[in-house]
Structures are given as C-alpha cells and as structure tokens.
Amino acid sequence: MGSGFDGPWRQSGSLLCCLPSNPCGVLQFIGGSYLSTAPQLSYRRFLESWCARDWAVLAWSYIPGFDHQAQADEAFTAFERGLRLHGHLLGIPIWRMGHSLGCKLHLLAPDGGEGCAGALLLSFNNFSAERSVPMLADLAPRLGVASEFSPSPNETLRLVSVHYRQPRNLLVRFQRDTLDQSGRLLGVLRNRLQDHSELLVLPGDHLTPASAGLRQSILGAWADAGRADTIDRLVTQLWARL
C-alpha cells in the first residue's frame, strides 16, 4: 500500500480500489486533469459515498497527456485487468463514470461503451489544448511539442457519433460550471439511433464532485462539513437514476 492511502482504499497497479464486502455494482471512474493522479484524495468523499451504497469503485490514476486516445486505451486495459483481479466483481452491473476530461476518455474506450450498463458523464470538457493550456500556442512551436490533443475536440465528437455505441448515458451539468460542454455532447449522442441519453442539471460548479476529502485531510472535518452534505446529495441523486 502506498503512502497517502487510508480507510478502505487499496492500490492495484494504476487503479485505486474501494471495495465494499457485498457490492451491488461497479463504478469505473476517471477523474479530470490535475485531480486524476490521486483520485482517492481528490474525489474521496464523492467516491466513498458510492462505496457506502455498496458500489465497488475502481478509480484510474493517471497524468494527463496530449494523446487522449492512448490514455483511453490504457484506462480500458487497467479496468479490464482490475475486474479479472477482483473476480467477485464479475457478473454485476458495471457503470463508467467520468468527470471533466475523464468523460472524454470513457467515450473513447476501444469497446465503444459496450462493456458496461451505462455511463455517468459529469462536467464533460472537450476544449482544445490551447484553451486548456493557454501558453501552449506560443511555446509549442519553439519546443517542438504537440500543440493539440489527439483526437482534437471536433474529431472527438465525430468519433463519438460513429463508434460510441452505449445508449444509456446520464450527462450532468452544474449550473455555475463555465467549463461544461455537455450540451454539445448531448446533441451528438441523441443523433444516434436508439439513444437514451439524458441531461441532468444540478446546482454547483465544475469542482462540485471534487476536493472535499482533500480539504478535510488538510484542515480537518470542520472545513468539509458543508461540502460533504453537497456531495452526499449529489450521489443520492445520481444513484437514484441508475
């Protein structure tokens, strides 16, 4: 077990696993940029609230890069390996859940979303590299590095329209989220045959699912009380839609 782990969390390769004794389902979680390296901390309250409802959580830890397709493939392989390692999880419903960039990585999974019962996509973000990294436009030519994500934002939506085959998707947009692009994604999904995607609009901002556990570990439980209630309500609303 690596440093920084406590409570129910266990590490299995690049996965952080929270496993209740009798899980009713599995959540394969991918977080957003800058939060994704330690999801057991940056999304602690959110993910442990799912575990308290008897959902096993497999959260992928990664450092964001420019080749999003390669990272989507890597995440898919890690989740498949995790399911084989924890054999008692086989045969129960699997949902994929992403936050921000994590939504994009799930949408680019090599199985086209067919290996799960549905997807929860929170605060979908599909900005260009220059929008996400403002200095990149000036630095990239001089450094000889990639200046756009692969696939690009437009290509991502095209790939979703052609290759993504999961009909059950719950998109979540928070009212004060200025980074959310769920509306555009919803249009692409609904143009597919037999699509059942929905959009749920909730109070909050882009970081509503995150940060509570991190603040608690640094400042103590008093700093987390209000945020904890917000996150517990969020999980209850999502859980009721599965």
Automatic annotation (TrEMBL):
InterPro entries for this protein: AB_hydrolase_fold, DUF1350
Name of a matching Pfam family: DUF1350
SUPFAM superfamilies with a match to the protein in the record: alpha/beta-Hydrolases
PANTHER family from the UniProt entry: OS04G0405600 PROTEIN (PTHR34127:SF1)
Entry protein name: DUF1350 domain-containing protein
Organism: Aphanocapsa feldmannii 277cV
